[in-house]
Amino acid sequence: MSSAKIGLFAALAVFTAIFALQWLRLARDPRRRERPTLSDLGIGLLTNFLDALGIGSYAPTTALYKFRGRPQDELIPGTLNVGSVSVGFAETVIFVTVVAVEPKLLVAMVASATAGAWLGAGVVSRMQRRAIQLFMGIALLIAAVTFVVGNLGAFPVGGVARGLAGWPFVVAVVANFIFGALNTIGIGWYAPSMVVLALLGLNPIAAFPIMMASGGIMLPVAGLRFLRTGRFAWGAALGLTLGGVLGVLIAVFIVKSLPLRALRWLVATVVAYAAIVMLRSAHRGAAAAHGPASENLISHDIKGGSL
Length: 307
Known about the structure:
Layout: H1 3-27, H2 38-52, H3 58-68, H4 76-83, H5 85-98, H6 103-124, H7 129-151, H8 167-183, H9 190-199, H10 204-229, H11 234-255, H12 260-303
Helix pairs in contact: 1-5, 1-10, 2-11, 3-12, 4-10, 4-11, 5-10, 5-11, 6-8, 6-10, 7-12, 8-9, 9-10
């Protein structure tokens, strides 16, 4: 094993351990001991099973949360980031171990995604409910379109390279920084990352350890910021943690492959519907916010003799 991979695994262990200790420390408060339901565990298992097969988990998880009616919309980004840490750890260990990719590219991509996630989580953890609904609705629409485009065979097929150099290297690193930041609002990084790397000539298989390792490191880093603000659902996050790892292990070691084309059409339909529901929620929130404010302003003007 290369020194770069050893260093990556060491960083993975350190960040994950810090995150786990912080979560356990906060969980000592009885008010934060919300247990996951069977539904929480089932969603974690199903969506992260799909994640390990390359479909992604953020969009279908958000859609299922929205259909179920909990957690609250403003808690979904934090729940996704906090609950996916264990899954990111498992996927990193599995895919970085078995798939070859240039160490320099791998380390640079992980570092840039982590920096983006740290900055993004700081912004998202302070965003208002309607802004989160709006961004997640857009994220779900992007995901649905991505699934459709992929099924129509419009994605670039990629090259044969296992590493990048020169300007393609710089473009890939900068793009991963952006994807890391967007990931904290619920925009999964699998599809855009694979598209960019394929356009730059990287072998599609080599994209997997990059995507998994980026998640493995950036998720605990972003998760720490959500832990500090408390902007996540404890039970749902624990359901993703426990059910998600099981889903990954089933996908990688038992099932290994499925008719992904049919699954993507199904997921695209569900996600598109959830996007519409989320954007409608944002619209209703805006109407409710502007309505009373407008009425109060008019009333104030009448009393003051302005009208």
